[in-house]
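PT: before anyone asks, these are the final sequences, not the draft ones from last week. 794 residues across everything. Please model them as a single complex and drop the result in this thread when it's through.
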Amino acid sequence: MKKLRVGLIGLGGRGLGLCKSTVFTDFEGVELVAICDNYQPWLDRAVECLATEKDLHPKTFTDHHDVLNKDLIDAVLIVTSWETHIPIAIEALELGIPVGMEICGCYDLQQVWDLVHTWERTKTPFMFLENCCYGQNELMLLNMVRQGVFGEVSHCDGCYAHDLRREICKGVLTHHYRWGNYVNRNCENYPTHELGPIAKMLNINHGNRFLTLTSTSSKSVGMHEYIKQKHPDHEVLMNAKFNQGDVVITTIKCAGGETITLKLDTTLPRFYSRGLEVHGTKAYYNDVCKSFFFEGDEEVEEMWDWQPNWDNREKYREQYEHPIWKEYLANGIKGGHGGMDGLVYGAFYDCVMNGYDMPINVYDAAAWMAVTNLSEQSIALGGAPMVFPDFTSGAWK
Amino acid sequence: MKKLRVGLIGLGGRGLGLCKSTVFTDFEGVELVAICDNYQPWLDRAVECLATEKDLHPKTFTDHHDVLNKDLIDAVLIVTSWETHIPIAIEALELGIPVGMEICGCYDLQQVWDLVHTWERTKTPFMFLENCCYGQNELMLLNMVRQGVFGEVSHCDGCYAHDLRREICKGVLTHHYRWGNYVNRNCENYPTHELGPIAKMLNINHGNRFLTLTSTSSKSVGMHEYIKQKHPDHEVLMNAKFNQGDVVITTIKCAGGETITLKLDTTLPRFYSRGLEVHGTKAYYNDVCKSFFFEGDEEVEEMWDWQPNWDNREKYREQYEHPIWKEYLANGIKGGHGGMDGLVYGAFYDCVMNGYDMPINVYDAAAWMAVTNLSEQSIALGGAPMVFPDFTSGAWK
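LR: through. Structure below.
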């Protein structure tokens, strides 16, 4: 195939991060030809970054419609605010332009159905760019689950635990879409970072599916307390009322009987964590202490205080490292975020250029993104269970 | 006060454990005068243990009605199977015999109401013997919460993560009440170990209360897989069908807006943990890595990988150790379970002998035990939210 001309729409934090990374320079045949943001300062910032740091000089746009042009690009990366991901993706799919869409939750299930139906009608390649599916540890765990090391998996936990208080305030102080979401909504607003890898472990859409969920939200006190400390004289910040609870717990039940618990924890002080836990009949993994526990370990005295075995993950690294990562480490890591970005963007480029099926397809995106809207409904109804649509219309079996 | 003559009803695992511990020998004025179990082998085993290890020779009974006699005892410890805790407690309260009741969940909310009403009518002293409320770390955390170190607490997590597969099988192999519970029920069957300490941190029944909960259960595969490995030729075990899911997730919403997540995890291989997490506006605590994170720590690079700060709890031990434990360590630890048993049984004796109010009273017991029946209902209804009765009838405010 000739060069893959790529357009990048959205130049906020994530878009700029991609410009600073090597996802546009590390891949042979990939050329960043167009960048776009409707907020001029972000566009200028990206132009400057690409020119000085990468010697890249793509065309610039403020209206994404001008980028969605097959004469200009062969594929588009959608890295905009959450609200605009799906509408722009649908436009691109209709035009036959392959889409790599960054992660988010959905605002309404109908949006997700529209995305699914558009893809089914157009069959334009679509990939959901969940980089954590390519995390080194997440892939190692997936490899172990597939090899049967965990026996039958009964339950998994994940979280998006990331102190975003400063970033959320940027919505007023500079320009950031999270502000409006935290003021107006209350939901599991960022479910896919650990749900994606867990869904792969549990074969969601390939013999299994999400059936129902319940969500419960704590009160919202973290943001205001932070603002009182950091911006006591800023009237808009000080008067803001936040709908978004500090911690949202979501429990999903799967058709195969497995359960998944997600914790969103973004407005209180804490260390970053994706909190993966895998509970199987033969083994247990806990990411907080980076440790495995295998059948038989219950005979040792340490089972009462596992501290001597914290960080035992590295002992099993060589044995269980995923082939993708073995090859990646051998050939040199690309992109950002500890290599995840290079893998997820590389996979997208590779599939578009070679016509392969996407590893994270529209049905994966639909099931994972649906969590946000369903959790919003559940919280609004006092924790009532909500049912997942079957976006595959039965094909998951 | 003259000697406190104590009767012990129930000599299974926990009852025998108490006999082996020093909770009947370490406390001046306390005398174990009667022991009882309706299963003769357990009674014989306890008699032998007490005689040889402690030189104690209490009267023995197989019918608990014979123990509930004010001429014989001044207080009773109820350490029987879960099903019989409340009925025996109600009998004792009616007779004016102070009750120390071991922990369990309830089978029906009406039982709990009956216990509350009986106490309100008789005012016979009653204490719920949740030893984890006296855990060294739990009390340290309570002390920190009370001092405001966490700011406003928004969410807590706890679990009872304890591989009980061997113990559950004892129900058939020897004699144990858990078997019937795991075969017939599906619920958060042991909620109080970490809910008790969390309830104290959140001032439940003292300005706050549990409002609602939702529970979701994973499939049940751990027990059968274990039996296939360990007892492949045992027909009863091999043919058993277990209702109890491997992992049960329960999320509680409080009147003050706080949320609590409980995880029951007892039929899969894993290390023991009570998994306490405390999320506040000023600090975070995670028991799995025994580590605090304080406001401001988000500025350090380690916030992305907290490993260098694992086990930092001990750095704060001296500063925040609870006064109860400071005194306890100075005067010598008593009882079992790392000292918790000495504190909880000592508190009970002390309150009975001196007429003090019980530190864990009938309203605490009611709210905490109610979780089991409510979780059973919620699971049966597909995760529907269930409402907590207000056992205090408004007095919690």
